[in-house]
Write a structure and sequence with these properties.
Methylamine Dehydrogenase, Chain H; globular; Immunoglobulin-like; mainly beta
Length: about 475
């Protein structure tokens, strides 16, 4: 089967690839004091990030004001040595890019500045470990302006791109059926590196702590240095790895065509456990509340204990489950090739509801603000009420929807085998924008920092911006 899978780039690739902590920049001191300085921890993150600002060299026992660009965000009183430490919250409206954090002594008038990088990573297939398909920090694209999207760049790989992009710290990571994993500059599409592995790349990369994790049709689960592409380790399963990894608490979880779900040490690749669930596992695991959820071609959805792999429950649908579960409000949402979308109690596996579409459901649901969005082989994208399964709307694309929807700031993005990627109004399903690549789009979009990234069967990775 085909598994489908945003952050404004900073001005240089090196800065873009740095970990968040490395983004902390000593402030330029004011002319009045060569020792006045402030630092930020962390130095980058999405809007609403909690940041600690530390300062030295200010007046003794004075009040200092902290501004984020021109917005006051905190005050503090310095110590007897002129230092301070205080938290603030990055404003929700802060746009992607570099922002000045300015600290000014109210008595001494001494000041210093540090830079904070606003970015909202899309780190893996369907955004996060719960597979919600949501970027809650997107504040550039909206229903009001998304019609203005235009092709920013495209990068050719030579063969179909089923893999879905991950976007982290100014780089886009994606696989191709040519057996390569690519790292591209998120702003320009320029290639940063590529790494050739032993088989087709259907798996979508997951990026955590400076490492790219991805599966391959050679049976390998690979760990690559995110900055350079250098291999760190690989683990070989007994079957192809179509499943896209999830990384949680230092453990990599992925399924294999050998019928196993694997848990591997993220630092070393050593196997922690594997659990055989009876048939090929194309489904990409979701991890929530200490439980791993995955589907299998045997028609079952499984809940496994994340620490040990012990089976907690399974639920049998009427056909194979390649759709990846999404977890929200203690409910597991998943599609099946029996044509239904299911809502299951996350603790027990008991069915809450099911909704019949007109075809198999390989698409993985996105669950955002009480609505489930999911595609079907009947050519429709459906919006269902998460609590009851009642249909709110559907949008007919005219062809099979393998792609899994992405949701950001009240817009739903999805690809179709008619060659189009769509932007739909989340509340009504009204079409706001579409772009045709001329070939099937089975990759799932990623949305970060005002840019939509998606692969196409025409062999290109695309980026769209205003």
């Amino acid at each position: 089967m085909k598994r489908l899978f945003l952050v404004m780039a900073v001005t240089t690739v090196a800065a873009a690839l740095c970990p968040a902590a490395a983004m902390t920049i000593p402030a330029a001191a004011s002319a009045a004091s060569a020792t006045t300085a402030v630092t930020l921890r962390p130095g980058a993150g999405p809007p609403t990030t909690k940041v600690t600002v530390n300062g030295t060299g200010f007046g003794l026992g004075e009040t200092v004001a902290v501004d984020f660009d021109t917005s006051p965000v905190a005050t503090a009183v310095t110590s007897a040595t002129g230092s301070f430490s205080t938290p603030f919250t990055v404003p929700a409206a802060a746009l992607p890019g570099q922002h000045r954090v300015i600290v000014t002594g109210q008595a001494s008038n001494l000041s210093a500045t540090a830079l904070f990088g606003v970015r909202a990573n899309w780190a893996k297939f369907h955004a996060g470990n719960r597979n919600s398909g949501d970027n809650p920090y997107e504040n550039v694209l909206s229903p009001a302006n998304v019609a203005g999207l235009a092709n920013a760049w495209s990068h050719p790989t030579g063969t179909a791109v089923f893999s879905s992009p991950a976007v982290v710290n100014g780089a886009v990571y994606v696989g191709s059926r040519n057996g390569k994993v690519y790292a591209l500059n998120a702003a320009t599409g320029g290639q940063l590196w590529s790494y050739t592995i032993g088989g087709d790349e259907f798996s979508s990369p997951a990026v955590a702590n400076g490492v790219v994790y991805v599966g391959s049709f050679d049976g390998g689960i690979y760990a690559l240095n995110a900055a350079t592409g250098a291999p760190l380790w690989n683990y070989t399963a007994a079957g192809d790895v179509f499943s896209s990894p999830a990384v949680a608490n230092g453990v990599v979880y992925a399924g294999s065509h050998d019928g196993n779900v694997y848990a591997l040490n993220a630092a070393t690749g050593a196997k922690i456990w594997s659990h055989h669930i009876g048939n090929e596992v194309d489904s990409s695991p979701a991890v929530a509340h200490g439980v791993v959820y995955a589907g299998s071609w045997n028609g079952n959805v499984y809940a496994l204990k994340a620490a040990t792999g012990a089976k907690l429950w399974s639920y049998h649908t009427g056909s194979g489950v390649v759709s990846s579960p999404a977890v929200g409000n203690r409910v597991v949402y998943v599609g099946s090739y029996d044509g239904n979308v299911y809502a299951l109690n996350a603790a027990t596996g008991a069915q809450r509801w099911s909704y019949p579409t007109g075809g198999g459901v390989p698409s993985s649901p996105a669950v955002v603000h009480g609505v489930v969005y999911v595609g079907s082989e009947d050519g429709n994208l459906y919006a269902l009420k998460a609590a009851t399964g009642a249909q709110l709307w559907n949008y007919p694309t005219g062809s099979v929807v393998w792609s899994s929807p992405a949701v950001a700031n009240a817009v739903v993005y999805v690809g179709s085998d008619n060659g189009n990627v769509y932007a739909l109004k989340a509340g009504t399903g009204a079409k706001l924008w579409n772009y045709s690549t001329g070939n099937d789009i089975e990759s799932s979009p990623a949305v970060a920092n005002g840019v939509v990234y998606v692969g196409s069967d025409d062999g290109n990775v695309y980026a769209f911006h205003l």
